[in-house]
Design goal:
The protein has 85 residues and is α+β, with helices and mostly antiparallel strands. It is built from two helices and five strands, in the order E-H-H-E-E-E-E. The N and C termini lie far apart (34 Å).
Length: 85
């Protein structure tokens, strides 16, 4: 299976920077794992907007998969109560 390139948007990077470092580290590991499996078990296709989401505790990572270019683009990272606004 080909390796995807993971990109984090500036907005998502700012959101990740605001999260406590212990949690952010685990989220970053999860984001990096999308390179080998962009649609892991438990990911959901979003309704009402493009992309997918994965959960880690109370946090959500919203991302897009561009299969023809082998790119995973992380759009947003945040607490579940804030992420869908």
């Amino acid at each position: 299976m080909p390796e995807y390139q993971v990109r984090i948007t500036k907005t998502a990077q700012k959101q990740l920077d605001k999260i406590p470092s212990q949690i952010a580290g685990r989220l970053f590991d999860l984001i990096q794992s999308l390179a080998t499996n962009p649609r892991p078990h438990g990911c959901k296709k979003l309704k009402g907007r493009d992309g997918f989401r994965i959960r880690k505790g109370d946090f959500r990572i919203i991302y897009d998969v561009i299969d023809n270019l082998l790119i995973v683009e992380v759009i947003a990272i945040g607490d579940r109560k804030d992420i869908y606004d």
